[in-house]
Amino acid sequence: MRVVKSIDEFKEALNYRSEELVQLYDEPVLFDFSQSDRRPFFVSTLLHGNETSGWEAIRSLVSEALENEGIPSFLLLLGNLPAAERNLRHLAGQPDFNRIWDRGDTPYHQWAREVLEFVRAKHPWYSLDIHNNTGPNPHHSIITSLDESTLQSARLFSQNAIFAQQPPGVLTRRCAEFSIALTIEAGLPQDPHSTIRALNFIQKLWDRQDIPSINFSDLKIFENSVRVVLENAAELTSEDVPHFAPFLHRFNFKTIPAGTKLAKLAKPKTRLIALDEQQQDRTEDYLSYDGSNILVRQDTIMSMYTEDPLIVRQDCVCYFLNTLDAESITNSRLAV
Ligand SMILES: [Zn+2]
Prior knowledge:
- This protein is an alpha/beta fold.
- Helix content is 27%, strand content 24%.
- The chain is globular, with a radius of gyration of 20 Å.
- The chain folds into two domains: 2-218, Aminopeptidase (3-Layer(aba) Sandwich); 224-322, no CATH class.
- Zinc ion (ZN) is lined by residues 48, 51, 131.
């Protein structure tokens, strides 16, 4: 684990765009500017190398702060810099850097454990993991806890939040053990508004020790019911990825009616399957096959839809969501 405490070194790094950072660091780097008398604000970004808005936001915010009042107590983790160099989510042969924060024996899991212990020992009051959307859906947050502070800070970012209990190994879920924790999906990486959204959100919180009190009663909370993935994706090439219906991105965060065609198989033996949070196969409930066409079996809300064959192979096609009502939130809280 590489930890940097030198502000001069950090200032130098601020001159580098995400794809250039590898010239300074050929591995992930954790900047520690925590102050012993003030609980730090922990920011992580570039866990996915092609999701650059978080670093752009930090560069701009920190440069300005250094010229003015100085920087507050904070920790910054820059994740997959070798993948950032090539503008990829992760490199071939690497795991997804936002799936390694739980059990596992690889050197990546070992590194993740060291980072987590280091950060935990600093007692951050807030942990923010900044991502970009992989598809053209609205910016939103992902929460792993339903306590009031988390919901309040989710609303501070966006009206839409996803309560995610899967997939396993996500950083925010671990950080929620010791701080308020939120993932933001700030919008598409190439959209300059995504950087501004991330910047504004960090700025609201990073020199505080609590969430500003706001009304969050209009926060829409969704829950992942299943993830739609390509079966045996690791063994397939981009030519094997099904052809998706061209209008589907319009359904992001909206109800997609039963019977809608999701995709057409490119090869007879490839299949899309739906996995629930326990990684159980729920394809029968959510998808139906009509020859080579794949249809949605029941009305469902879709999110994070992507047609990018590489993302489909490395991660998933989309999630299907349920809305979470006040009663189920209360029940989830009681269950914790
Ligand atoms: Zn991401």
